[in-house]
Design brief:
five-stranded mixed β-sheet; single chain; alpha/beta
Length: 162
């Protein structure tokens, strides 16, 4: 699995500026993250349009997290519209934590960006919409806890209006 840094994700994100983009930042051994990955998989199977692009960033947030455990998740599902990478230093998770105003590294977060949004500098842009599966102490709003129905509706709206 390719090692990703902020620069790599920013480059791929900006290259896809004409699409609605979904970014998921996950731990490969966290049960909630694995379920969240399944929800992203569902979203891409449901909406087979080329106007939707995805990025999954795997982070070492739990003791068993490593490139092998991330590759096992990658083997469960591959899509030409979704790029997946490993961030062994959590650099990407820390960058998203600043954007989302979280107390610690961003992980188990699901972000959607409308067409035309560009990422400038090291700090990721504010997402058009986002949800999470974080604990209250993270600083994430409880009303944004991941709900696949609501998340899908936001993506549908952006695909239709963008």
């Amino acid at each position: 699995m390719e090692e990703w840094k902020v620069e790599k994700l920013r480059e791929e994100f900006n290259h896809s500026y004409g699409t609605v983009r979904v970014i998921a930042v996950l731990s490969p051994t966290c049960p909630e993250c694995v379920r969240g990955h399944g929800r992203v998989r569902y979203l891409f199977r449901k909406f087979r349009t080329k106007k939707l692009r995805g990025f999954v960033v795997w982070l070492p947030m739990r003791r068993a997290d490593n490139t092998s455990s991330a590759e096992k998740q990658l083997e469960k599902w591959k899509s030409p519209r979704v790029l997946e990478g490993w961030d062994g230093t959590c650099q990407i998770g820390k960058a998203f934590a600043k954007t989302l105003q979280l107390q610690d590294t961003a992980w188990d977060v699901y972000l959607v960006y409308n067409r035309g949004v560009r990422w400038k500098g090291n700090k990721p842009p504010i997402p058009t919409f986002w949800m999470h599966q974080l604990k209250k102490r993270s600083g994430a709003a409880p009303n944004l806890h991941l709900n696949v129905g609501r998340f899908s509706k936001e993506v549908i709206w952006l695909l239709k209006t963008g």
